[in-house]
Amino acid sequence: MNYDLNQLSKNQQKTSTMAGLKKLLQLIAHEKPTLIIAFFIIIANSALNLLGPLIIGHTIDNYVQHKNFDGVLRNAAILLAMYATALFTSYKQTTLMGGVGQRMLFTLRNSIFNKLQQLPVAFFNQNKAGDLISRVNNDTDKLNQFFSQSLMQFIGNISTMIGAGIFLLVINFELGAAALAPSLLILFLTLALSPWIKSKNAANLKSTGGLSAEIQESLNNFKVIIAFNRRDYFRKRFEEANTDNYKTAIGAGLANNVFVPVYGLFASMAQLIVLCFGIYLISKGMFSIGLMVSYLSYATNFYNPLRQLAALWTNFQTAMAGWDRISQILSLESNLPVLPAGVNEPDACLLEFRHVHFSYDESREILHNICFKLERGKTYALVGPTGGGKTTTASLIARLYDPTKGLVLLGGKDIRTLTPEERSQKIGFILQEPFLFTGTVRDNILYGNELYKDHTNEQMEQVIRDANLGSLLAIFEEGLDTRVLSGGDSISLGQKQLIAFMRAVLRNPEILILDEATANIDTITERLLSDILDKLPESTTRVIIAHRLNTIENADEIFFVNSGEVIRAGSFDDAMDLLLQGKRVS
Ligand SMILES: Nc1ncnc2c1ncn2[C@@H]1O[C@H](COP(=O)(O)OP(=O)(O)OP(=O)(O)O)[C@@H](O)[C@H]1O
Question: What element of type H or E holds 202?
């Protein structure tokens, strides 16, 4: 399945936008009461602002021209009360919508992160971490900015414009129609240019994701960069990504601001029309000065928000471009669904590969028609040349991927019918490159293990001793409290492997897979691990992948994995022969 977010098909993009929009509505469903209150407050605020010019016009025509100062003072007091109320409604709408925006940002980031946790390994193989970080951080913030600031102004401006438009038409229809005519041109222009603005912003967000991916890659690999003195190479790559980001930012900025002068021009045109036409009507005695003052004010009330809408519209387009990128993640489904429980085969072995085929992508099949069985309590070794397919086979045992054809059965059940919790409880996988989290050795050993989470350190040490792991813990000077910094950078690779080993063994799995788990460990510690493996419960099946052949001397059965095939190698010496032949062949 294609998980590359930057290469989604048109169909995938279309369904992701629709599914994303549905998801967005679901996400803000619980905000409905707040949004309704905010909506009415915004309308009230616009109404208060719109009544002002009418009262001023009325004051000029009825009180100022007749020198009725009581009336002037009364209307001034009404205006003061209205403006004070408008100040309050304006404050209220800002706090309400600001809250909605922040809560939405919070929920949205949580939803994306939860989705990322559900997606299969194939998704992470196909996407760069930096681009994903940019989607979680930057793109969600674009949406937050729109919701917390622009949406409120958007509704406020639209309602002010509608109100001002109605006043303009009601006071004098012909003059109103002439004043509003330029806005129709603006509407057509806006609709015509919107897709272009959105695409410019989408390109900019994409290149920001690319820039973030570039930074992330060079920060992750800084030791290699320094060791190989490739600073220039990465500087050049960064410069290219930065230049691309700069160019797309200029493009987006240009697109976002193209409306501002155009809107300004049309607004000034409308003022001019009102002024000329209005003076003509006054000279004919068909219009009063007070109404003219109100009228000019309404024309301003109509075109000023329109001018602001130019900026808000581009914010909206940026938010939509960000939302497209977010919804691409939210609409993805894992290609590793849990199937309904099927038939449980009687007298089944612990694990069986039944005619398994597998490929990472369509270009090349990595495993062809693999059949083998693993018995409970035995030790198996997978050997074979580099790139032969050992890790791939182990990954299918742990269901990091599903076979493209064939079945993997665990205890007689299709492995796809097991929930992730059941599966991870039954299968312990120590990866070639164990990943540790920042925290302590204790945090890392207990990662994903609910059983001992409330144990004190003393109780934990006892559990570790009972599992024969005490000698491994003793290697860490501060025991369970030893600090692990920056994802494990503060400790050696061998020590990381020991922590990963303890983490897996303490879960008491039915199958324990060790993928080159002793590659970075000294011979004495390796012997310790070998003793621990021997003392695991009798029912535990061990699958050991190793290049150092002394580690698999005691295996009950050896499989030779090469060129997409997994074959029984027979004795240790036969495996050696195959390995030497295999190496020659590859
Ligand atoms: N994520 C991936 N995407 C595409 N191809 C992959 C991926 N991972 C591995 N491969 C390819 O699959 C083949 C088998 O790789 P695998 O890692 O299973 O070999 P291995 O026997 O474990 O090698 P090693 O001894 O070096 O660990 C290799 O040709 C490799 O290039």
Answer: helix 173-220
